[in-house]
Every structure is written in C-alpha cells, then in structure tokens.
Amino acid sequence: MSNNIPLAWAQEWLATPKQQYINGEWVDGASAESWAVKNPANGETLCSFPIADADQVEQTAAIANQRHQAGSWSKVSRTERANLLREIARLIRENVEKLALLETLPNGKLFSESMADDIPTCADIFDYYAGWTDKYYGETSPVEDGFLNYTLQEPVGVCGLIAPWNFPLYQASLKIAPALAMGNTVIIKPSEYTPLTTIFLMELIDRELDIPAGVLNMLLTDGKNANQLTLSHNVHKVSFTGSTGVGRKIVQNSGASNLKAATLELGGKSPCIFFEDTPDLDGAIDRAFTVMFSHKGEKCSEPTRFLIHDSIYDYVLDKLITKAEAIKCGDPLAEGVDQGPQCNEVQFNKIMEYIEIGKTEANLVAGGYADTEGDNANGFFIRPTIFSDVDPNARIAQEEIFGPVLSCIRFNTTEEAVAIANSTEYGLAAGIYTADVSRAHRVAEQLDAGMLFINRYGCYGLAAPFGGFKQSGWGKEMAIHSLASYTKNKGVWVYYGDA
Ligand code: NAD
C-alpha cells in the first residue's frame, strides 16, 4: 500500500458526526432512519448518520428559494462567483489524497484512479466554469426597424442536483460548478452509498470560503425522501444522473408538480464496432477492453457490446479472454490490483443475476463468478466476465448490467452492424473502428447515439458535450451546454418608433 494514503486521518474523520448542510449550518437529519455507508471491499461500516426526511427536503428547498428570490447569489458579481469557484478548485487540489481516499472507500474504485483522474478532474471542472461566469450572456436579434430585441440569460432558480455512486464527486462537481457559475442556488444530493467526498468538500467550503448561507446546500438522504426534491414547487430545475427508471420517475414528478426543467443523464448499453480493417487492432482491443472493465465496469458510457466482424472475431475474442484472465481483483487501496469490488451489495447481486441469465443465453468464455479468494472473502468482487456469440436480442445484450460483463456479438455486413448497434432502448455512446474514412463517417451518421468515438473509444473533455439519446437521457452536460441548462432565456422587446 502506498505511503501517501491518509488512512489514519480518514479513521478520525469518519468518526465525526455526518450532518446535513442547510442554510450555512450543520444539522442532524430529521428522519428516524439512519443510513450506514459501507466499504464494499470488506463489508465494514465506514460511518452512519440520520438521513433527511421529506419535510426536511422541502424546508431546504424553501430556504434555497428564499435565498434565490432575495438575490443572495444571482446578484453577487460574476467576478466574485468566479473567484469562489476557483477557490473550490484550490481546496480540491490541496486535499487530493484525502478526497481520493474518501472516494475510493465507499465506492471500491482503485485509489490510483481516484488520485490520477477522478479528483483532479473535479478541480478542473470548477476552474473551467469559473472562466464562464462572464462569458455566457444574451444577444440582440435582427428584428424590424423601430424595435430592439435583446435576450438575457437569467439563473433558473433553485437547482436540485442528484448524483449517482459511480463517479460521486465528479458528478457532483459537473452539476454544482455550472449551476453556481450561472447564479443559481443549489441543493446537492449525493448518492447515499458514496456521500463522503461531497460531505468533506462542503466542510472545506464552509470552513474556508465565504459563500452566503443557503446558496449551496447538501442533503444526505435516500431516493424515497429525495423524491420530494423533484416534487417541490420550490425547486425549478433538476439535474439528475442515475438510472433510467429513476429518470422516468423524475419526469413524472415534474409533470405532477411545477413542470420543472430536467437534465437527465441515464443508463447505457453502448456498442463498439470493430470492422475487419480496424487499424492497430491490438491497440484497439487494449483500449476498448480498458474502457469496458476499468472502474469495475460501473460506467454509463462503457462499451458493453463489442460488435466484431466475423473475419477477426476469433482473434479479438482470444485477446479479450487473455486480458480478462490476467486481471487481479482485490483491495482498491493496494498496489498491483487491477479491479476493486462492485460498489454495493444490491449492485453485486444484480450483476450476478445477469451473469446467471447470460449463462442460459450465450457462451461464457471468461469469468462468470464472484472472486472470493483470500482477503476478498467479504467483498463484492466479480471476475471480468465475457460472453461470446451473444444474440443481439438476448437480455444481456439489451439491458444495462453496470458491471464487468461484456457481450461479444458477431456480424458480417456494415448494415447488420448498424442495425444491431441501434437495436437497444439506449443511445448514450458508440465506437467505430475502421481504416475506411468514408465508412467511419457514414456509420457515425447512422448510429443513434449521443457520443461517437472513431478509432479510440472513450474520449472526454470539459469543452465537449456529454449526454445520450433515446432512453439514455435528455440534454447535455459539460461545455457550454451545461450553462444553457442552468439559465433561462428572457426576450425583451423595446419599441423606439419610426421617427
Ligand atoms: P439511481 O438511479 O439508483 O440513483 C441515482 C441517485 O438518485 C441517487 O442519489 C439516489 O439516491 C437518487 N434517487 C433514487 N430515487 C430517487 C427519486 N425517486 N427521486 C430523487 N432521487 C432519487 O442510480 P445509481 O444506481 O446511483 O447509478 C447507476 C446508474 O446511473 C446507472 O443506470 C448508470 O448508467 C447511470 N449513470 C449515468 C451516467 C450518464 O452520464 N449517463 C453517468 C453515471 C451513471
């Protein structure tokens, strides 16, 4: 285990009370129910706390709305907003080891991944949106003589930000930073499974920065109580990342209440197509395998369906099997480990059920069982699992599993590959590997997915939009797209006459 892991600090921090952050104060969750945050590597409880109940959720929304109506944040200068976001970025960078540990402990992702990627990117997100506070504004429109029409980009109001457990602080940052940049008041609700980094960041902000009370609030609760955020008339916008089922519920709740706007980043079943002329085939297999199985397959945009041309199918499959068998599952804090445990027991059981379904639908060629060797005995470890010759209509090829389970599908023609790729209810991402530039562009046009990766699966950048089509969600996050979703466009007409 590396020396820079602040375990002793974490033990002390975990023993301190975990409270809600409402109106600039730390208060106990009002519910009689408590939630225990667990370490999926060994099943131990990391900390527990009373959760917020629906009434407390509503009270928080009402406070955030009062602050919004009073202009507590929207009237703060854009320079000051930018300064605050940059200060948050600084706090994240100064505490990267602590945050990386608090990200890894309840999630099971590798500490090295949290350190190298997840947490530093959060700081970059705050810096990126700090730069936008005074660069996103309205326009004048070319209207008839005698009239002036201009538009204003105003804050939406109270933003309910609901994050999942797979990239906890990253998802929270992607929502908080643009929402604050555009002058909104915010309620962040981290996943109950992985709230630690969000709690710690709120503590740092509360202790070290000067942000008006009630502008940035945090609720620690489960989905049942968080439901009130999406029903509340005091909330004007919901940004949600999570499962398609909950996304659907949020849309229903919006319709049943105040028609609040919703950005939804939901599930996926993304295809990666390997044509017979895949350039640098070994490199392509390496890359797609890594994106598929890193973070133990708990990524919405990972390529869970490899569509492989018949002429290279056996070669690709052999390579994949060799790679899967070489993966070492174990303690995500330890060096030399490739894959940590699944995030929680519910997820572990769901994946294991899909593996059993897969065994009845296709050929299991790698993994297919829980890894309970030695120190892994009490954790939620699953071997990287590969099914071959999967029928495109099989359940394991159609439904989101959200774990280290890959379906390999054989195809012969481009038309067949496109039809299979488009055959699920999802449309988040898709990959195309081919040396034929015309085919790459033609297929990119034909695939019904929000993000296309040609000859390198899984590219991301803060200045590029992220989001899916079909039942993978509504709207885009990142880049300028987030700013549009956290503002409302007001048109103003001025009549100044003919003379
Ligand atoms: P989830 O839908 O179970 O929960 C997500 C969040 O919603 C949690 O904070 C949860 O407490 C909350 N929630 C649950 N029910 C709610 C309700 N009725 N009202 C308000 N909030 C509620 O998802 P998860 O299991 O945390 O995450 C995994 C899912 O997230 C997968 O389906 C994955 O594809 C998706 N995901 C999508 C993206 C993307 O960008 N498209 C990114 C990451 C994860």
What would a concise description of this structure say?
The protein has 16 helices and 22 strands. By secondary structure, it is of the alpha/beta class.
- CATH superfamily (homologous) name of the largest domain: Aldehyde Dehydrogenase, Chain A, domain 1
User: So what's the oligomer here?
Assistant: single chain
Provide the CATH architecture of the largest domain.
3-Layer(aba) Sandwich
Percent of residues in helices comes to 25-40%
| Structural domain count | 2
The DSSP helix count reads 16
According to DSSP, the number of beta strands is 22
Low-confidence stretches: none
Give the CA-based shape: globular
Percent range for β-strand residues: 15-25%
Output the structural class: alpha/beta
CATH topology of the largest domain: Aldehyde Dehydrogenase, Chain A, domain 1
How far from one another are the termini?
80 Å
Lateral strand order in the biggest sheet: 14-15-16-13-12-18-19
Question: Quick check: average pLDDT?
Answer: 97
How would a textbook summarize the main sheet? 7 strands, mixed
Could you say which small molecules are bound to this protein? nicotinamide-adenine-dinucleotide
What is the CATH C-level name of the largest domain? Alpha Beta
Overview features:
499 residues; alpha/beta; Aldehyde Dehydrogenase, Chain A, domain 1; Aldehyde Dehydrogenase, Chain A, domain 2; 7-stranded mixed β-sheet; 6-stranded mixed β-sheet; 39% helix; globular
